[in-house]
Amino acid sequence: MNQGTVDQGTVPRSGMIMKEPEIRKAEVSTELELPMYDAIAAGFPITSDYVAERLDFNRDFIKHPESTFYVRVRGDSMEEAGIFDGDLCVVDKAEEMEHGNIVAAYVNGGFTVKYLDTSTRDQGFIRLVPANKDFKPFIIDSSDEFTVWGKVIFTIRDWRKSHCLP
Asked: Which residue segment(s) compose the domain that 56 sits in?
């Protein structure tokens, strides 16, 4: 684990200064309807020029505008969950959080995005689990300063900057 570096994959302990993450409140007062076509193939090509409906991200994806915000990911501890450095996480504080959800959390002066593992709660601790084998889970007990900010409900990636072919 990269203990000591400050990114979304590590939790700084006392003495380390971490700037607050870039957080944006969800702005849902405007509408921007985009056409949503019936289907697109991820295998053999199919034809589909039928507009099935109109999609508005604010109306269709943000259920609790007062408690929803965006935060930009820094780090690579969640790559195996499909969350990459630079992605935007849409986080909803009003969503009920359960074991196995991906959450945005504040731990010991640092901010992180991890899986919430409550299976050890009866043993006096919970874990925040990364989705990258190069990182270890964080063990959170009563001695830690810990707050779950909310449940990650969507991620957004800017594919214009992505180069995926080897």
From this structure: 28-61
